[in-house]
Design brief:
The protein is α+β, with helices and mostly antiparallel strands. It folds into 3 domains: 122 residues, no CATH class; 99 residues, Nuclear Transport Factor 2, Chain: A; 123 residues, TATA-Binding Protein, CATH 3.30.310. The chain is built from 10 helices and 17 strands. The strands form 3 sheets. Strands 6, 7, 8, 9, 10 and 14 form a 6-stranded antiparallel beta sheet that branches. Strands 12-13-15-16-11-17 form a 6-stranded antiparallel beta sheet, with helices on one face. β7 and β8 form a beta hairpin.
């Protein structure tokens, strides 16, 4: 089939990329959608659509790419194939299975082309305009053990940076302060496979385009318990609990929110709507949950809608009224999020879950 185009999100500094490739010949078209994870999962998700309608293509592109909070650009065939080869190596190195119909894209993973990898890397990164934003992104990359990103943003050819985390690490919160012209420090809260920690970091940067790292210094990690972390990073959660009265409810919900990202659980499905930007990374106090706009958890008979601020909650509440097919049971405001706890709990009904906490 003939290559038509490839599109990619400029979200590399958040750790993930959405890639859309279109192929076509006289008989059919194939639209391929890949979620590429730079931290652990490599090629993390794949969907192939053959001879699909424009509507179905739009829905899938929005589902995969719309929640990554960045703009989308065109890249060349060589660049797309180079990215697939690079991320497939993560799957192979970590013995991770390839998602979706592997035979549909296996032939693309052979490296028969090379590109300027550094140029391609920066092509997939958002332009950073402020030092605080740069420090937050570099803290994320340091915690995620993303040596490639740290190398490309370093002023040194062979940079040495401190090891601050183990496998599967995530930056939960980061508070950045300026010391002087090019020196900053941050107080980070991280989670990795061994637990939760507080960590102090010092950054010396070069203020140019793009920003560059001169050095990173790390203090000693301090273990912290989960309850303390919850208090530190939690936001109030606004919740509406409904009974589902229309079997088309989930279909209608997806039509209203085409960028919903689905995660299945034992008793139902969680649909998350992320904000269309990553502006929260520009704040002096970064919080991992600040990119969430709305969360919907559905079972066979119930829907629970959650938002982290009253304005977003009111908008979502009105959207659900417009969709219809729901009967409101109750509304709540919790001092910290509970919807994820409910999704993982043994109780099937939300009322039963509330009685257990």
């Amino acid at each position: 089939m003939k290559f038509e185009f490839a599109k990619i999100t400029k979200s590399r500094l958040m750790g993930s990329l959405g890639l859309h490739i279109k192929w076509q010949d006289e008989k059919e078209t194939l639209n391929q959608f890949f979620l590429l994870d730079a931290e652990e999962d490599g090629i993390a998700d794949y969907v192939g659509l053959r001879n699909a309608s424009l509507k179905d293509i739009f829905i899938e592109e929005n589902r995969l790419m719309g929640g990554l909070g960045s703009s989308i650009i065109r890249i060349t065939k060589k660049e797309a194939l180079n990215l697939l080869y690079e991320y497939a190596r993560i799957n192979i190195k970590s013995s991770l299975s390839f998602p979706g119909d592997f035979l549909e894209y296996e032939y693309l993973l052979k490296r028969d082309t090379t590109v300027d990898e550094e140029k391609l890397f920066f092509k997939t990164c958002v332009a950073i305009s402020e030092p605080i934003e740069f420090i937050n992104y570099m803290t994320m990359r340091l915690v995620a053990k993303d040596s490639k990103a740290l190398r490309y943003f370093s002023s040194e050819k062979k940079p040495l940076y401190p090891e601050v985390s183990s496998k599967g690490a995530v930056l939960l919160k980061n508070t950045v302060s300026k010391m002087n012209d090019n020196r900053y420090y941050s107080n980070a809260i991280i989670e990795d496979a061994t637990g939760y920690y507080k960590l102090k970091l010092g950054f010396t940067i070069i203020d140019e385009n793009p920003f560059k790292l001169r050095s990173i210094l790390a203090g000693e990690k301090q273990p912290v318990d989960s309850e303390s972390v919850r208090k530190e990073i939690s936001r109030p959660e606004y919740i509406a609990h409904y009974k589902i009265q229309d079997e088309e409810l989930v279909h209608n919900l997806k039509k209203a929110y085409p960028t919903l990202y689905k995660v299945p659980f034992d008793k139902g499905d969680m649909y998350t709507k992320f904000k269309p930007h990553n502006d929260h990374v520009k704040e002096e106090e970064y919080n991992i949950s600040d990119d969430l706009e709305a969360v919907f958890f559905t079972t066979e008979s119930e829907l629970v809608f959650a938002a982290l601020d009253s304005k977003t909650y009111k908008v979502g509440f009105k959207v659900l009224e417009t969709i219809g097919g729901l009967s409101l049971v109750n509304e709540f405001v919790f001092p910290y999020p509970v919807i994820y706890d409910y999704a993982e709990s043994k109780e099937n009904r939300f009322s039963e879950f509330l009685a257990s906490i």
